[in-house]
User: Fold these one by one.
Assistant:
Number 1:
Amino acid sequence: MRVLVVGGGGREHALCWALHTDDPRTTLFAAPGNPGTATLGTNLPIAATDVDAITRAAREHRVDLVVVGPEAPLAAGLVDRLQADGRPAFGPTQAAAQLEASKAFTKAVLAQARVPTAPSHTFTALTPALNDIARHAEPLVVKASGLAAGKGAVVCSTRAEAAETARAMLERGALGDAGREIVVEAFLEGEELSLLALTDGEQLVFLPAAQDHKRLGEGDTGPNTGGMGAYAPVSLATPALLARARREVFEPTLAEMRRRATPYRGVLYAGLMVAPDGTPFVLEFNCRFGDPETQVVLPILSTGITEHFLGIATNTWKPGDAVLPVSGAAVTTVLAARGYPDAPEKGAAITLPDELGSDVLVFHAGTTRDAEGTLRVAGGRVLNVTARAPTVREAAAASRAACERIAFEGKVYRRDIGWRELRR
Ligand code: AMP
């Protein structure tokens, strides 16, 4: 089989790794890929968002399946284009990808489907937004409706801060087009959980639940980032919680998408806030695999994922299990560059020991190989160091130990990934 993975971060390296592990005979392409995917297949120098060029490359290389990593090409309609070309593709269409690309759309779908979510109102004009905020309970949350690379949601402790955030987005265009429409919503108490499901629009299978760590600093302090680490499975995701999430979140959402004649196929990622009474509230949906959650979710699956991708892409899916079987636990620690997330320093040479142990997987995220073949820092999140072990505690220790052995000038990482699970 010939598979093209679209994207070039740690998530895509992990996807290539999983496809390769399922069947080493699979011919892999990545667009644009990174030095990690280059060890498993052929990198094509095409931007993930270049829908035309990716469609052409899929045809030229006669690929049997395209797996799309990031949200931007999905929101730009890559899957629609590939389907029109007769090319099996794993991921939602542009219309279905609105579940991530527009929070206003998502709120409307959730309301229609009666899915638990924070009460909210959507605005494009400043005055009604400020009026709503003036009457709102504190704390409250202001969100840009569009894709804002993780910067779109602002938890505000006061109405004054919320009003300022609304002004920045609606009046000053602080987040560009993404913030021309905003959602003002109530603050929810609870614990967050990343729950991902594979779906063909009707049937669904859960992947092991994960928890990521958005803040830069240990103890969940400092600025928000794309994610500094993740672990799976999460004991908070009991069979009872998964049953509720299936019945109260996923099934009604998928039914509403079918009712709108835009069925959702691919991986649906729910960012849930599990309330103290166990109700799974939807904070957001993502229309793709999480990064870095993928780097822990795929390594602990005890069955292959390729057949699911192919089945969903070709509308022949027979899911079997309700939850994909898992063995053991995994923790991934992100090695970031000094200055991340604001201004990461690039260029440092990376020393990566050949042998870090058979249970350690190093996924490349922001790396490049220079003309001499030296591996160098090329982005804020540089490497994702995943360790597998029987328990989260052991996996966390093994991930930390491996991180210590990888060297580059300015290396920054958290030593407490998985702390919530260890406390439980
Ligand atoms: P989102 O992009 O909507 O997932 O929001 C980013 C982060 O902001 C979430 O992971 C939560 O930590 C926080 N957040 C968003 N909405 C709420 C809410 N209604 N109540 C509490 N925290 C929230």
Number 2:
Amino acid sequence: MKFPSEPFKIKVVEPIRRTTPVERDRLLRDAGYNLFRIPAESVYVDLLTDSGTSAMSDSQWAGLMLGDESYAGSKNFYHFEETVRSIFGYTHVIPTHQGRMAENLLFSTVLKPGMCVPNNIHFDTTRANIEHQGAEATNAVVKEAYDPADESPFKGNMDLGRLEEIIHRVGRDRIPLVLLTITNNSGGGQPVSMENVRETRALLNRYEIPLFFDACRFAENCFFIKEREPGYADRSILDIARELFRYGDGCTMSAKKDGLVNIGGFLSLNDERWVQDITNMLILVEGFPTYGGLAGRDLEAMARGLREVLDEDYLSFRVGQVRYLGELLDHAGVPILKPIGGHAVYLNAKDFLPHIAQHEFPAQSLAVALYRDFGIRGVEIGTVMFGKKETGTGRVLHPKLEMVRLAIPRRVYTNMQIAYVAESIIDLYRRRERIRGLTMTYEAPVLRHFTARFEELDRTAHIQPVIS
Ligand code: P61
């Protein structure tokens, strides 16, 4: 089957409420046109994020009842530790409450002001945690990643030439590690090939620089390797994951993605010197090393989720459902980023709304229109999230890509709901010239997209939905 059907049946349902466009218009005004400030109860299909939004399996729910809430040495920790070691292969396993804490512990330990961490493309929390230490977060993804129409199969790959240039520019001693984000979220959920991982490793060996993975969506990345890379079609996902992590020295993980849990994360690595400082910091800010800011039951759910995510029936449905949405849109001529990513479809807002200049936030305007007309919530990944004021001149630097990400939660929505999303966007696309830009009226100094406020530039040009 081109789009495999659901490899599960539904045992528990959560009702969702429908709202009207008039109600949503009022909510948007109250929220300063920031979708992070909209109450989730007033969203029909919530594609804001695939993070922490998965439906857990019956086995994971059963695991919660086996939670051992002992302060030290919980049995769930040992199960979790053994699971992480058997997939990722690194010696030390440090649980954290989510991904950014793993980043914080790692970077507060290994970075000093003036240092630099290259990555294919840093996710915003990764960048913020690096910059918080006074260090530089540098992107070195292949150039195809910035062309939304380029159909290369591994657009998350590191550009090895650029990486080497960075090493020469900054100096080996000021690069304590290099990261690879799999899949590359900020570049469209695009995978990194095994060949590229191997070559990155070989290059870093020459300079004796450690390689770490930002492993949030590692199983989806391994599925793409199996599907697209010669020599991997007959290998299991577990086997592919083990090979991939062998080329690295450690990883940070937000288990809210491919851990199939609502909260949880970890840091795993081999380096003994770093582990000691990281553990001391963990105790200071998160908790004792056998729970790291989580309950015993959360560790159990995470251990079970990490096994389930390797199941190929699950992964082909998962990646297939995202592709289903992408292909419905693509066939109707809606501009999307290609190829379709592992966890999300990205609308190319520059092409969707060519009449809105980048300083008027086309992707944010599109996300607002999609919510107002249809109750569908996506997230802006463009100027609001990544635009920056240049120090000195105060000039605003716009990112190359201006996108609305429709991230699909794992095992949550049926294909009928996905079809509703596609129909709604196609309808909006036909009426696109009536969408107007926004102006920003408030911004915080870091991670401004969470709290920014906007006003509409022209409220008279209201759009009438055809379906609602
Ligand atoms: C997301 F708007 N991602 O994609 P934590 N690395 C990578 C991530 O994708 C990631 C983290 C590290 C989210 C949630 C999110 O401004 C935002 O468990 C590749 O969220 O701490 C998270 O993992 C951090 C959305 C996070 C945002 C920050 O939707």
